[in-house]
Amino acid sequence: MTTVQNKLHWLAKIIITRKSTVVDPQGNTVLDALRHLHFESADHVRIGKYIEVSVHAADEASARIEIVNMCETLLVNPVIEQFSFDLQQID
Asked: How far is the C-alpha of 83 from the C-alpha of 91, rounded, in Å?
């Protein structure tokens, strides 16, 4: 196991949404409710997930690779979801 000494601390803010080709029934329900409440300007709603993960990595490139691996391995269902993230150093 590697040590976190001499590694930088990073925070990833991950947004996961359904792919645009996948129906979002929860988003459709929220859109219907908004229209029912007379928010006529509401045009489209997609519901997603927001996850924050902090990691220790030697540099930004290594941190990005680690976050992508986490998303592709566990956090995202690649059949129906897509993800994006913002990464910032927090040390």
From this structure: 25
Residues 88 and 31: their CA atoms lie apart, in Å, by 33
Give pLDDT tens digits for 18-61: 999 999 999 999 999 999 999 999 999 999 999 999 999 999 99
Using the 8-state DSSP alphabet, how is residue 42 labeled? -
Q: In what order do the strands lie in the sheet with 8-18?
A: 48-57, 8-18, 81-89
What whole-number distance in Å separates Cα of residue 61 and Cα of residue 39?
A: 43
Q: Which residues fall within 8 angstroms of residue 14, CB to CB, at 6 or more apart?
A: 50, 51, 52, 53, 67, 71, 75, 83, 84, 85
Domain 8-89, CATH number (from 1.10.600.10, 3.30.1280.10, 3.30.70.3180, 3.30.1490.110): 3.30.1280.10
* pLDDT value of position 5: 76
